[in-house]
Amino acid sequence: MKLKYLFPLFIVTLALMASCDEEDAVTLLQEIQVSSSYVAIPEGGGDATITVTSKDSWTAEKVLIWKNDTTVQDSIKWLTISSTRGSAGEAELTFSAPSTLNGRTAEVLIHSSGKTQRINIIQGLPKIEEATVADVNAGPDGKTFRVTGVCTAIANTQYGNWYLTDETGTLYVYGTLDAKGGKQNFLSWGLEVGDEVTVQGPKLTYGSTIELVDVTVISINKSLIKVDSVENKVLPIEGGEFTAYLTCKG
Fold first, then answer.
1. What is the pTM of this model?
2. Which long-range contacts (CB under 8 A, 24 or more apart) does 184-188 make?
3. How far is CA 164 from the centre of its chain?
4. pLDDT > 70? residue 117
């Protein structure tokens, strides 16, 4: 190969090396480093360990990332961290979780000297099953379902306890998270009886009541008709008329 071809090749190689060095400089923090920023835990349960190297003391917290990309501190009870704080030097940090019926994710933030290192946690492959109320009733506790139905009654406007009905039955929703994942802020959704709602959350059987707990709202399709009142809630067995007074909101 002639020298005039070797020189441009040498320049390109140097440029690529410089690009890699610049990328490493951006992604690696001097104050705190980890052996891996991605942790995978088996779906059947288990643990995984990384090494934390810090120039100063550090703390760790579990967080969730919501639909609007906001970070919300959360206990994330399914994920256990061997330690939430440490001193300067090198230390091992172990993440563990029990088996799960659904894939799930979380994030751990490690703070030190004003800098933050993010650790992405994944267990299994997150998969949310589209379901009817009948599917939820027949499914196992702990499994997350996504259900679409009509809000037919609201029992509590602080926590967001209400009833969702589709063509297969009625389901009790116990707790509704707001857009940032917060609790006790149900009124922020403006949900009314008659609205069509899609929610997802884990199933729980409380006594004889089947519930979806602390659901995330996926979408709300507002009803254009509001039932103000009815004259006779129960029709006689021999038949008769049912009178309802409606308001058109459209």
1. 0.59
2. 184/158, 184/159, 186/156, 186/157, 186/158, 186/159, 186/160, 187/157
3. 20
4. yes
| Calpha distance 241→235 (Å, rounded) | 7
Mean of the per-residue pLDDT values of the chain: 83
Q: What is the pLDDT of residues 133-143, one digit of tens each?
A: 999 999 988 88
CA dihedral in degrees (68, 71, 75, 79; nearest 10)? 90
pLDDT digits (tens, 9 = 90+) for 204-234: 999 999 999 999 999 999 987 766 666 665 6
Q: Give the C-alpha separation, 24 to 14, whole Å.
A: 15
The two tokens of residue 236 are 């006689």
User: Alpha-carbon distance 43 to 45, whole Å?
Assistant: 5
Which pair of tokens denotes residue 19? 């690009």
- Give all domains of the chain, ordered by start, each with its CATH number: 30-123 (2.60.40.10), 129-227 (2.40.50.200)
Encoded tokens for 194:
């008659």
Q: Please report where in the chains the tokens 């104050």 appear, as a residue.
A: 31
Token pair listed for 214? 């602390």
